[in-house]
Amino acid sequence: MKITAIIPTYNRATLVSDAINSILDQTYNIDEIIVIDDGSTDNTQDILKKFHSIKIIKTKNLGVSHARNTGIRNARNNWIAFLDSDDIWLKDKTQKQVALHAKDANLIFSHTSEKWIRDSKEIKYPKSLKKPQGECFLQNISTCKIAASSVLINKKVFDTVGLFDESLSVCEDYDMWLRILYDYQIALVSDEGIIKKAGHSQLSSTIFAIDRYHIYTLQKFLDTRFSNEIKDEIIRKCNILIKGAIKHNSQEILKQYLKVIRDIQN
Question: How is residue 130 annotated by DSSP?
Answer without folding.
Answer: P
